[in-house]
Amino acid sequence: MFQLPLVTLALNSTLREQRISELKNYCPAQLMSFWKCLNETVQEINKGESWSGRACCHMTLSERCQYSCITATAKVDLQHTCRQSDELDFFTCLEKQQTGDECCGNARTVECHRVCRAIFQSELTPSKEMRTGVVNACSSSSPKVMHCVKNFTKVAPVVNNHKHLHCCDKAPNLECKESCHKSLRAKLTDQEIIDNLQEGGCGPPLPHEKLWQCFLQGASEVSSSPVDREVSLSRIDRMGMDSAKLHCCYKAVSPACRRLCLKTFSNEWTKSWEDFDKDCLSQLSETVLENCLNEVEEPCELGCDGLGYCSNFNNRPTELFRSCTSQADDAARYDVALWAQQGTLSLPGLQLPVRNISRCSPETWKTIACILQIKPCHKRSHSNSICRDDCYELLSECLDWYRMPPGHSAASLCSRFSPDDPNAPCISLKSFMEPSDSPYQAPADQVTSPCRGDPCPVSHICSVNRNCHPRHHRTTCQPYQCTQGKTPSGD
Question: For the Reversion-inducing cysteine-rich protein with Kazal frizzled-like domain, which residue ranges apply (predicted)?
Fold first, then answer.
């Protein structure tokens, strides 16, 4: 049977012309409907020939998304047919190609552009030969390309590889085991080692696989016996610093953030947290990852009451909040006092000088501090990014632009904190600038959330006590009940 896989033809124009020419030997011109359909499809494919994202089309999972990819001329053409949550590898590849467009666009020679594109089109970590090729072709004519590629690769050989050799014993097959030993004995970067292991039969780096667990959790000293080693490891070393968050790592958009996330929530918290916080959690592009981590740490809960400083957040029984507590209330008060005293707003990698906030929109700054600490959740997305209009208005008025480092504007700063899309979910400051307009309800008629705030002890599960109702019980009863949960055995 003569088969024409569209994605293969789309990626190779020479093969496409050759196969269509061969097809004429099998399909007569009288098949007008067939040839019309084929010609229209080829025309659509030809339109996006120069789009760099075409190189990623083979990574799509759904046929609908794949067809959109091979006929697209830009990423925007995919928005109605490809879901990022379903096509993580595909969108990671698209992001990489977009970076390549920006990077290689600075090339001043054809050869420099060619070797630069090869770096980004490869699915694996750039080899030493590829990196050397960029140095030879671009160092004199296109220094911007050199700098950009260097930032993209950021490679350095791993030291003390021999400490990880015991992980090879956990390989699922002999081919993987041999590849593991060979890779760890060579002077390679960590990503080159990962690539070699995947190609060598070890499969993708999944945290539940014993081989990858061993690498993720770090090299532990090999004890005299397996029993001794099990006893010597703490629960953090066995399970990870916060293993409940590991599943969120696969929601990261960029491969770098995915790797940092896996390292951070295994047992390398102290080594990688600062980089993860600065390079990933501070990026608007990683909102889905941040929301997932927040859901594990502080899930959105109904209702907010009992606040003193952030009193405008009270009496909101049907709205969602992550941290409606007295501690968060006090923290918001402290933040405003600190901003006023120091005259700066601290952000990851940046200090924003502000005017006297006791005079410039004081209620707005108070509301922002309360939003940052009380953390209201949007009902649809559970995100807590403030709306772009609010951000722009506040920074335009209250930022001290005389003390601000050059190269920044209200628009560029707000692009780091607020979504570009005007229809994207966001938290409006205006809704919290005044007290809630919800009508007061008698205690018996109020919406209640007995388990809000985790009232039960550690390792217990909270559930609503449906046998307790204030109007039906003369004696005081607890509106919730705590049940002992299952805990991991041993330590």
Answer: 295-434
